[in-house]
Amino acid sequence: PQHVVLYPLVAKSLRNIAAGKDPLEGQRHCCSIAQLHDHYSLGYPDLDELQKNPQPLIFDIEVLKVEEPGSYQQDPWAMTDEEKLQAVPLIHKEGNELYRQGKVQEAAAKYYDAIACLKNLQMKEQPGSPDWIELDQKITPLLLNYCQCKLQCEEYYEVLDHCSSILNKYEDNVKAYFKRGKAHAAVWNVAEAQADFAKVLALDPSLRPVVSRELRSLEARLREKDAEDKIRFKGIFSQ
């Protein structure tokens, strides 16, 4: 066993990863001692003590699982730009398979990872440039898949936000109007839902049977809600 000089800083990065944070959060390009002097603390008392008083270390490593060759997939933050581009179709495919299996939350996480890869690359491009637009067109179907998962998880306001962001850029995206219409209907934004479904029909008349079913469902829910309200408030104004 021997003391590893950079271990406290490495350990801080690993703890950040475990907490879902950026592994380099709070760091700058300098040695570990300078990091400590710059921030006065690594944020963990045990690491601060080890940094100030180096000592031999013994690492006890536990094997959590064994994966098949080629099955390991890096987290998006650890990938190079080229690896991100190569990984996106694979992650997308994994998300689709999970969705088909009914594992909606897991599928949403996969779509989110794929979107994160592309968003990271897009941030390096000039907004509106050909490369930026090409990446955005890859993001859009992933984001719509993500919204479909969120619809099933009843997270309707997130669907409204994402679909609106798509429609601000692509006014003819039928799927975005349809999913936003369903989300509006779910949160009782009746006029907005009707407007979105009307836009769906204007863009693709072949979807009339699907839209009609959604509108009938909304009308049935409205009648049910009105009946419940009448019972709930019966006699309240006659007292």
Explain the overall architecture:
The chain is mainly α and 239 residues long. It folds into two domains: 6-52, no CATH class; 81-231, Serine Threonine Protein Phosphatase 5, Tetratricopeptide repeat (Alpha Horseshoe), CATH 1.25.40. Helices cover 65% and strands 0% of the residues. The protein contains ten helices and no strands. It has helices spanning 7-18, 32-39, 45-52, 81-100, 104-122, 130-152, 156-169, 174-186, 190-203, 208-232. Residues 1-63 form the AIP/AIPL N-terminal FKBP-type PPIase domain. InterPro entries: AIP/AIPL1/TTC9 (IPR039663), PPIase_AIP (IPR056277), PPIase_dom_sf (IPR046357), TPR-like_helical_dom_sf (IPR011990), TPR_rpt (IPR019734).
Average pLDDT reading: 86
The top level CATH class name of the largest domain: Mainly Alpha
Total DSSP helices: 10
What is the element string, with H for helices and E for strands?
A: HHHHHHHHHH
Beta content comes to under 5%
Supply the CATH architecture of the largest domain: Alpha Horseshoe
Instruction: Spell out the CATH superfamily of the largest domain.
Output: Tetratricopeptide repeat domain
Helix/strand layout:
Elements (H helix, E strand, L loop, with lengths): L6 H12 L13 H8 L5 H8 L28 H20 L3 H19 L7 H23 L3 H14 L4 H13 L3 H14 L4 H25 L7
Helix pairs in contact: 1-3, 4-5, 5-6, 6-7, 6-8, 7-8, 8-9, 9-10
